[in-house]
Amino acid sequence: MMELGTLLERLKLQGLDEQLDTICEQAAKRDLDYRAFLTEALKAEWQSRNVRGVETRLRQARFPAMHTLEAFDFSFQPSIDRKVIRELASLAFVERGNNAVFLGPPGVGKTHLAIALGIKAAQAGHRVVFLTLDELLTKLRKASAEQKLERVLKQLTYPKVLILDELGYLPMSRDEASLFFRLVARRYERASLILTSNKGFADRGEVFGDPVMATAILDRLLHHATTVNIKGESYRLKEKRKAGLLAKSRSSQTAKEAALEETGENETAL
Asked: 101 in helix, strand or coil?
């Protein structure tokens, strides 16, 4: 007769194997019947697999940091509509294959929010991949040169959520924009993109190198997208400003200070 430990191993019930003694002890104390005991045993196995699955998906996503929505300082960026973020956090846009776009200057929390949504998606069972735009274009250029573009595009289409960070920091060449368009077209209405960019849509020609290509890309990116435009100063510079290591931002200057500065009469820094 096969031993219980062997059965658990061959059925790959690792979580149940690790917790079986505790489950049996609790079942005896609660006087569970066979059906209730089996339910508790299978629940323990499912929870263990879920934890391992989340850990695997988070590792495969290759996030540069583990930022969560709970850790985001909404009070520092009052321009953000929390209702919009809560709606995105429900992941309904992921289920529909829609996109999310975060716009704003450096340091305002775009990447933090993108990663936080990616973590939510991974916890919900979706495969997620994080790439900077530079990493993506390097991957696509290499694949094209090695005649492996079709295979790489297929790989990048498979994740339910693809996060592309730092769109707009460096302009694309026409060839790069063409490669990017092929990826966007592959994922259009099939899987979600989360984008962060320091450029507005009015700068599309500057970002994508060609107005016609830019229009084709944005047509697909924005057709089913939620756009969050963050207007504020850099969170990373906040503490330095408090410590007096940086001058006040123009938004925090008084009208008089700004006027003096414009006329060259403010010589306090000399």
From this structure: strand
Spell 123-145 as b/e; 16+ CB within 10 A means b.
Answer: ebebbbbbbbbeebbebbeebbe
d(CA 10, CA 21) in angstroms, rounded, equals: 18
| Six-digit token string for 161 | 């959520």
The phi, psi pair for 222, rounded to 5°, reads -100, -5
Q: Read off the pLDDT of residues 101-158 as tens digits, 9 standing for 90 and up.
A: 999 999 999 999 999 999 999 999 999 999 999 999 999 999 999 999 999 999 999 9
Q: Is 163 helix (H, G, I), strand (E, B) or coil?
A: strand
Give CA–CA dist 119/126, Å, rounded. Answer: 9
- Side-chain-side CA neighbours of 224 within 13 Å: the count stands at 17
CA 248 to chain centre: 31
Cβ-count burial 158-184 (b if 16+ within 10 Å, e if not):
ebbbbbbbbbbeeebeeebbbbbbbbb
